[in-house]
Amino acid sequence: MSYTNFKIETDADGIAVITWDMPEKSLNVIDMSVMDELSQIVDQVAGDEAIKGAIITSGKSGFSGGADLTMLEGLLKEYHVKKGSDPEGAAKIVFEGSRKLSLVYRKLETCGKPFVATLTGVCMGGGTELALACHARIAADDDSFKMGLPEVKVGLFPGAGGTQRVMRMADGQQGMQFLLQGKTLRTKQAKSMGLVDDVVPAKKLMEAAKKLLKDGLDPVKAWDKKGYKLPNGKIYSPQGFQFWPAANAIYRRETHDNYPGARYLLHAVVEGLQLPMDLALQVESRYFAKVLQTPEAANMIRSLFISMQELNKLARRPLDQRPNKIKKLGVLGAGFMGAGIANVSAQAGLSVVLIDRDQEAADKGKAHADSILSKSVQRGHMSEDQKAKVLERITPTTDYDQLAECDLVIEAVFEDREVKRQVTQKAEAAMKSRAVYASNTSTLPISSLAEASERPKNFIGIHFFSPVEKMMLVEVIMGKKTSDRALAVALDYIKTIKKTPIVVNDSRGFYTSRVVMTYIREGLMMLADGVPAAMIENAGKMAGMPVGPLSLGDEVALDLAWKIVSATRKDLGVKYVEGPLDNILEELVVKRERFGRKNGKGFYDYKGKDKSLWPGITDVTGQPKPAESFNIEELKQRLLVMQALETARIFEEKCLTDVREADVGSILGFGFAPYTGGTLSYIDMMGTAEFVELCKKFTRKWGPRFKPNKLLRDMAKNNESFYGKFAPENNSATSQAA
Hints:
Elements: E1 6-10, E2 15-20, E3 29-30, H1 32-47, E4 53-58, E5 66-67, H2 70-83, H3 87-98, H4 100-109, E6 115-119, E7 122-124, H5 126-133, E8 136-140, E9 146-148, H6 162-169, H7 172-181, E10 184-185, H8 187-193, E11 198-200, H9 205-214, H10 238-255, H11 260-272, H12 277-292, H13 295-312, E12 328-332, H14 336-347, E13 351-355, H15 359-378, H16 384-392, E14 394-397, E15 408-411, H17 417-430, E16 436-439, H18 446-449, E17 459-463, E18 473-478, H19 484-496, E19 500-505, H20 512-528, H21 533-542, H22 549-556, H23 558-572, H24 580-591, E20 604-607, E21 610-613, H25 617-621, H26 632-652, H27 659-670, H28 679-686, H29 688-702, H30 710-717, H31 722-725, H32 733-737
Parallel strand pairs: 2-4, 3-5, 4-6, 6-8, 7-9, 8-11, 12-13, 12-15, 13-14, 15-16, 16-17, 18-19
Antiparallel strand pairs: 1-2, 9-10, 17-18, 20-21
Helix pairs in contact: 1-4, 2-3, 3-12, 4-5, 6-7, 10-11, 11-12, 13-27, 14-15, 20-22, 20-26, 21-26, 23-24, 26-28, 28-29, 29-30
């Protein structure tokens, strides 16, 4: 038989080599055609007496990127269409559709012939579950190898047997961390956990796999044999009672029960481990189908998989612009941010000119890159030779003339208009005419900064997030005169360094910085309302934010927040309305020099990696009221509603124009509760009318900052949602960039 996605060759020893190599794909993924063909292949191997065993290998550099989640989106659409008229039938569609892959893998596992998976490069999601269903796994001893089950990160859990096989193969604690955190394993970690049986050089994978089969690999898994005992003991046993209550407590601490995917993963594991494998897999499938039907899963799949994929393929790139090959980059300012930009760009293969006011400062910027790269070498993610090649690409200097051959120059100096004006003019004097100039400002309007430029069409904002090496989002800001070509250059550069771009129009604070400040501000307003500081921080984390608003204020830097407030007050003049925010920041920054983590004192006191709330907060804000005076659910809502409301205002102002960018940007940029799918998905999930009523309630109780804007009020009247009213158009640039 011939297949589209696979090729089978059987050697003289009766070993079938199944090569997975999907046409026109850079990486193998699991879609309906792969499932159908894999099922047929298992039947072929099982039914052919000449075949003694099989090896599944990849024809690409990696084994598999996992399942194509657009399949699940299609399944959910079918479910919602039928749900109104036939709820039971709709639920059955989801259950049967979502367990198809699990049944294929179980058929492979029990077909009577041994299968070995040879693993190289990326092995993720459904690809990992396929490997676990095989009777042995051999991984390449290579730095590029990565094995994971990241489904919890998009609101799901491994639903093709992953929960059951991992917990029957690995140590209980390691297995639960692997599943609940969506951790990625390197070769040695996978081997030590028991998820990989052997590790050999990539060139010897096939030889090792064939030897396993020739030596008589058992085609029956341990859990399918009589007398099988769980490696971690029974759930209801002294050993189990030591482990499972702690596992549940850790789940609660880490998720605050916001994620149905994680919650039902735990259910599937605990219940499944008490049953034979076939029933356990059925339990897993039922919980997987249940998770699929939650709005959290639908929103996370849409934002963190589908939308992010589209943005990474430059869905917002102007269609009429030719591709730009960026070879050389200039970075102005070798501080923490500039050094980070230089580092990620050099790692992407670009030559970088790193400029600062004196050579010592420029050298210090390169030293930052050196320290980051050295850590990668220590962890085995990079060789000394690779590190040296990256560092060779960074040229620290004070000489602006070295910008002459740069295709793009990024300014990353202080948030000071005059400093930015001076470096802009110096740089443009040396740059070639078609080179693009970008400012990494986080708040200052790009159009006003472009007034210092002789060529505003080539002037754009490229706003990175700190630390640059870890943060995946880049916010691109269009000035009033910015050209489509400048936008195309910026997006092509961001794709080169493998980050996710969003495009916004010019305004003070743009999108991310403006919303982040509302989160921090609401925390300060709560302090002014008498809410205890610890309660504010816990409310933020319980709402799903990565850190509390006071902690984030320290990370952003309180003196920067004060500068932003001061600049805004200066620009707005008599229109500016002072409030508790001004008083608290002035007291902390100006009078007490508490700038945040950067100088070891802010709302917290810092000692190395340890921190504790500063006891003197009450000296600034007054004594707090008793915690029981406040409703924790309302505090959580205040923090999320304020950010979502500000996003809706920004959308109405057309600073944001794409719902995908609002949601992806909010999660990647400032950690807005991922289980919601993002700021606008949060409104849609609640319902616009209900959200508006909540805003009105908060306006009466907490002040006019919660007043819903006209767009929201109109949408509430018409029962409209953001994804219904502003459904994104699929730009053909998406497919062109794939």
